[in-house]
C-alpha cells in the first residue's frame, strides 16, 4: 500500500550521488547488495572455469585443458576462494539483509553509527578493489588461505592481496561493532532481549565473532606481509620460525569465520520457517542461545584444520572432541525448526522451498562435518574432494540457499514490489538439483582419494567429474533465472502490500518500502516476535 | 538518515532519545573497538610467548641489545601522558576548556618525546646492523664488536620491530587524534554536557599506553 505521502527511502532523496553519500542503513544495504552481487558473478565465473577444466582429463583434446596449465588453474582457484569468502559469503547476509532489517526488527530508526556504516562500505570496496587489481597486476596462486611457507616464496602480488583481505576485515569489524551497539542500545520500548526476532539474534551473535576474531586475522595477515617484505622470520623455519603457527593464527580467525558465514543464514531460516508454517517458532530461547553457543564454541575448534599438520596427538584429540561439540547447538536449531514445521500450515512459497532446501543440504554438510572431526577418518579424507564437498554443502548449500530464500522473503519490503513466484520456484528447482548434482559426486570422489586443488586427475575419476561439471551448469541456470526474476520484479512487479506474508516481526509493520525514518510512530512492543497460534 | 536536533545544548542524532543515550552508545562503540585492538596485539603476544619458550636464550641475547634506560624513560613519559590525558577529559567535564587544552598539549608533547626516543633507538639499531629476521646483518654487527651467539637472532628482532613498530604507528595515530580534539577544544566545542570525542581519544590513548606497559618488560627486561 505504501506510505500515505508516497515518500520512502528509495525516492526521498533524488539522484544517483545521494546513494553514495547516504547514511541511511537501508540505502547502504542496497549499495552492499549491488556490489556483492557483482562479486558473486565474478566468483561464480571462476568456479565455472574450474569445473570446465575438470570436465575431462588433461589428455583430452580441447576440453580438459581450457586453463592451459596448473599455474593458471591455481590462480583461478585462489580468486574463486578469496572472492567468494571475503567478498560474498562473509559480508553477504550481515551487510545486506542485516543492515536493512536489523534496525527495523528491533524498532530502531537506524544503526548506532550511521556514518561508520557508510564508511564500512567504502572500506570494503577499497579492499575489494585492491584484491581485484592483483588479478591484473600479478596473479596470486596461494589459495585463499595463504598458507606459509608457500605464500612467502611464491610470486604474485601476495602482499597486496593480503592487505586487501586486511582492509575487508576492517570493514567486517566495523559492521559487527555497529550491530552490537545497535542491539544493545537502540531497541524500541518493550523490545527486551528475548523479544528480538531470531534473525537479529543470529546477526548479533555473528557480530560478536566478527569483532573478536577478525583482529587476529588482521595481525596474521600483517605478519605475513612483513614476512614477505622484510623476512621477519616468524613463519619461516629457516630463521627459526614456524609455518604451522601461521595455520594456528589463520584458523583462529577463519574457523569462527565459518560461523560468520553460517550463523546469519540460520537466522534467516528461523524467520522463513516460522513465517511460512504460520506457527510460533518452537524453542525460541533455545535457538537464540544456540546461536551464542555456536559463537562461543567456534573459538575452540580451529585445531581441526591441522590434524595432519604436525600438531601434537593430544591437541588433535582435544580439538576433535571440541569440534563434535559444535554439533550440539546446531542440532538444537535443526530439531527446533523441524518441530516448528510439525502441524504448521506450511506454504511452499519460493522462500520456504529455499528454507527446506537449507535443512536438507545443511544436514548433509553438518553430518559430514562431524565425520571430518573424527581424526581417524580425517587422516584419510584430509585434502580430498570429500572436504571440498563438505564445506560447499555448508557454505553454498547453507548460506547461499539462505541468501536466496531471505532475499525473496524480504524482496517486497525492500523494493515495494512483488516478484514472480513461479519464476522464483523454478530458480530453486535448478539451484537445488544442480547443487546436489555438482557436489554429491565430490563426496564419492573424495572417498576414492581424489585430492583437492589439483588441475588434473587419473582417468578413473572422469565420469563423476563430468557429472559434477554438468551440475555446475544447472546451478548457473538457476541463478540466471533468479536474476531474471529479480530484474523483472523490480521493473514490472505488482505493488507490494505492507505485509504480504502475514508475518509478525516488526519490519512488516511499516510501509513497503519503508520510509526514511523506518516507522511513522516509534513502535512500542508488547509481545514476542512469533505469536502466530 | 542524518538529521539531528539539539538536546541540552548537544547535537543529538535523531535515532537517539537524548544526549545521554547517544553518549552511552558512542562509549560502548569505542570500548568495543579497543577490544579489537587488544586482540590484534594479542596475536603478537601469543607469538612472542611461543617463541620465547622455544628459544629463551636467543630472546635474552636479543634483549641485551636494548637499552632498558631508554625504555624506562619512555614508560614514564607514557604513564605521565596518561595522567595529562585524563586531566584533559576532567577539565572538560568541569567546563574549564583552557586548562583542558593545556593538558592535551602536554599529552601531545609526551607522545612526541616517546617517538623521538624511539627514533634514536631504531636508528642506532640500524646503524649497528640490527634488522628484523633475514635482514639482520652479522657482518656489520661484527664490525661494531658484537659477537652473536645465535645466528637466528633476527627472529627476536622480528618481534621487536613488529611489536614496537605497530605500537609506534598507534602512537602516531594517537597524536593525530589528540591534536584533533585539542583544536576542537580550542574552538570551544566541548563542555560539561558534551566531551565524547575527548573521552574516546582518551580511552584509545590509555590502551596504547597499556600495551606499552606490557611491551616494555617483555622486550627490554626479559633475560
Automatic annotation (TrEMBL), chain A:
GO CC list: membrane
UniProt cross-references to InterPro entries, sorted A to Z: Cyt_c_oxase-like_su1_dom (IPR023616), Cyt_c_oxase-like_su1_sf (IPR036927), Cyt_C_Oxase_1 (IPR000883), Cyt_c_Oxase_su1_BS (IPR023615)
Ranges that cross the membrane: 29-50, 77-104, 116-138, 158-181, 201-225, 245-269, 281-302, 314-332, 353-377, 389-411, 423-447, 467-487
GO molecular function per UniProt: cytochrome-c oxidase activity; heme binding
Keywords: Electron transport, Heme, Iron, Membrane, Metal-binding, Respiratory chain, Transmembrane, Transmembrane helix, Transport
Protein localization: Membrane
UniProt keyword Heme, yes or no: yes
GO biological process, one term: electron transport coupled proton transport
Pfam family, one: COX1
Family stated for the protein in its record: Belongs to the heme-copper respiratory oxidase family.
Listed name of the protein: Cytochrome c oxidase subunit I
Organism expressing this protein natively: Pseudobdellovibrio exovorus JSS
UniProtKB/TrEMBL annotation, chain B:
Family: Belongs to the cytochrome c oxidase subunit 3 family.
Protein known as: Cytochrome c oxidase subunit III
PROSITE patterns registered for this protein in UniProt: COX3 (PS50253)
Transmembrane region(s): 30-51, 71-90, 102-120, 153-183, 203-222
GO cellular component term of the entry, any: plasma membrane
Bilayer topology term: Multi-pass membrane protein
Localization terms from the record: Cell membrane; Membrane
Domain Heme-copper oxidase subunit III family profile: 29-223
Amino acid at each position: 500500500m505504501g506510505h500515505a505521502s508516497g515518500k520512502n527511502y528509495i525516492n526521498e532523496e533524488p539522484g544517483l550521488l545521494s546513494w553514495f553519500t547516504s547514511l541511511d542503513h537501508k540505502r547502504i544495504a542496497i549499495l552492499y547488495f549491488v556490489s556483492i552481487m557483482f562479486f558473486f558473478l565474478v566468483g561464480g565465473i571462476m568456479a565455472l572455469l574450474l569445473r570446465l577444466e575438470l570436465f575431462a582429463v588433461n589428455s583430452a583434446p580441447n576440453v580438459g585443458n581450457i586453463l592451459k596449465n596448473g599455474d593458471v588453474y591455481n590462480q583461478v582457484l585462489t580468486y574463486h576462494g578469496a572472492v567468494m569468502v571475503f567478498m560474498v559469503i562473509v559480508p553477504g547476509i550481515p551487510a545486506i539483509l542485516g543492515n536493512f532489517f536489523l534496525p527495523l526488527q528491533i524498532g530502531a530508526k537506524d544503526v548506532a553509527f550511521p556514518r561508520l556504516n557508510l564508511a564500512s562500505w567504502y572500506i570494503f570496496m577499497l579492499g575489494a578493489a585492491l584484491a581485484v587489481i592483483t588479478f591484473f597486476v600479478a596473479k596470486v596462486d596461494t589459495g585463499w588461505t595463504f598458507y606459509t611457507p608457500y605464500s612467502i616464496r611464491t610470486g604474485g602480488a601476495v602482499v597486496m592481496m593480503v592487505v586487501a583481505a586486511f582492509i575487508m576485515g576492517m570493514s567486517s569489524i566495523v559492521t559487527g561493532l555497529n550491530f552490537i551497539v545497535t542491539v544493545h542500545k537502540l531497541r524500541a520500548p518493550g523490545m527486551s532481549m528475548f523479544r528480538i526476532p531470531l534473525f537479529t539474534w543470529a546477526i548479533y551473535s555473528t557480530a560478536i565473532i566478527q569483532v573478536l576474531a577478525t583482529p587476529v586475522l588482521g595481525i596474521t595477515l600483517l605478519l605475513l606481509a612483513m614476512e614477505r617484505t622484510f623476512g621477519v622470520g616468524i613463519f619461516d623455519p629457516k630463521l627459526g620460525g614456524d609455518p604451522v603457527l601461521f595455520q594456528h593464527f589463520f584458523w583462529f580467525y577463519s574457523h569462527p569465520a565459518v560461523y560468520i558465514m553460517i550463523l546469519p543464514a540460520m537466522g534467516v531460516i528461523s524467520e522463513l520457517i516460522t513465517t511460512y508454517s504460520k506457527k510460533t517458532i518452537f524453542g525460541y530461547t533455545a535457538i537464540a542461545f544456540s546461536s551464542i553457543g555456536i559463537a562461543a564454541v567456534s573459538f575452540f575448534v580451529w585445531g581441526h584444520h591441522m590434524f595432519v599438520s604436525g600438531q601434537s596427538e593430544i591437541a588433535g584429540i582435544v580439538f576433535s572432541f571440541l569440534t563434535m561439540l559444535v554439533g550440539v547447538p546446531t542440532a538444537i536449531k535443526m530439531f527446533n525448526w523441524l518441530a516448528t514445521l510439525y502441524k504448521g500450515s506450511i506454504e511452499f512459497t519460493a522462500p520456504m522451498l529455499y528454507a527446506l532446501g537449507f535443512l536438507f543440504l545443511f544436514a548433509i554438510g553438518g553430518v559430514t562435518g562431524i565425520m571430518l572431526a573424527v581424526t581417524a577418518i580425517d587422516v584419510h579424507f584430509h585434502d580430498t574432494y570429500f572436504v571440498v564437498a563438505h564445506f560447499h554443502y555448508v557454505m553454498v548449500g547453507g548460506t547461499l540457499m539462505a541468501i536466496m530464500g531471505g532475499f525473496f522473503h524480504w524482496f517486497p519490503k525492500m523494493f515495494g514490489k512483488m516478484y514472480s513466484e513461479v519464476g522464483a520456484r523454478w530458480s530453486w528447482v535448478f539451484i537445488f538439483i544442480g547443487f546436489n548434482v555438482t557436489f554429491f559426486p565430490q563426496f564419492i570422489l573424495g572417498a576414492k582419494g581424489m585430492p583437492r586443488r589439483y588441475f588434473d586427475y587419473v582417468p578413473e575419476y572422469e565420469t563423476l567429474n563430468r557429472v559434477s561439471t554438468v551440475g555446475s551448469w544447472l546451478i548457473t541456470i538457476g541463478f540466471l533465472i533468479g536474476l531474471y526474476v529479480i530484474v523483472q520484479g523490480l521493473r514490472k512487479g505488482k505493488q507490494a502490500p505492507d505485509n504480504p506474508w502475514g508475518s509478525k516481526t516488526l519490519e512488516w509493520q511499516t510501509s513497503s518500502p519503508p520510509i526514511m525514518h523506518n516507522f511513522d510512530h516509534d513502535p512500542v512492543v508488547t509481545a514476542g516476535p512469533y505469536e502466530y497460534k | 538518515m542524518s538529521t539531528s536536533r539539539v538536546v541540552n545544548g548537544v547535537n543529538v542524532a535523531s535515532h537517539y532519545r537524548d544526549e545521554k543515550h547517544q553518549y552511552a552508545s558512542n562509549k560502548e562503540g569505542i570500548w568495543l573497538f579497543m577490544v579489537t585492538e587488544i586482540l590484534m596485539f594479542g596475536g603478537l603476544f601469543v607469538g612472542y610467548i611461543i617463541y620465547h619458550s622455544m628459544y629463551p636464550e636467543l630472546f635474552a641475547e636479543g634483549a641485551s641489545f636494548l637499552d632498558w634506560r631508554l625504555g624506562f624513560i619512555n614508560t614514564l613519559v607514557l604513564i605521565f601522558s596518561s595522567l595529562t590525558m585524563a586531566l584533559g577529559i576532567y577539565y572538560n567535564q568541569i567546563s574549564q576548556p583552557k586548562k583542558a587544552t593545556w593538558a592535551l598539549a602536554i599529552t601531545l608533547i609526551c607522545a612526541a618525546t616517546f617517538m623521538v626516543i624511539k627514533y634514536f633507538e631504531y636508528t642506532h639499531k640500524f646503524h649497528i646492523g640490527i634488522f628484523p629476521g633475514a635482514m639482520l646483518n652479522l657482518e656489520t654487527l661484527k664490525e661494531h664488536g658484537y659477537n652473536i651467539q645465535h645466528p637466528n637472532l633476527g627472529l627476536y628482532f622480528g618481534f621487536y620491530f613488529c611489536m614496537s613498530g605497530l605500537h609506534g604507528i598507534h602512537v602516531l595515530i594517537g597524536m593525530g587524534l589528540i591534536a584533533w580534539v585539542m583544536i576542537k577544544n580550542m574552538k570551544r566545542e566541548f563542555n560539561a554536557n558534551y566531551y565524547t570525542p575527548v573521552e574516546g581519544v582518551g580511552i584509545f590513548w590509555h590502551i596504547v599506553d597499556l600495551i606499552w606497559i606490557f611491551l616494555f618488560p617483555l622486550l627490554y627486561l626479559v633475560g
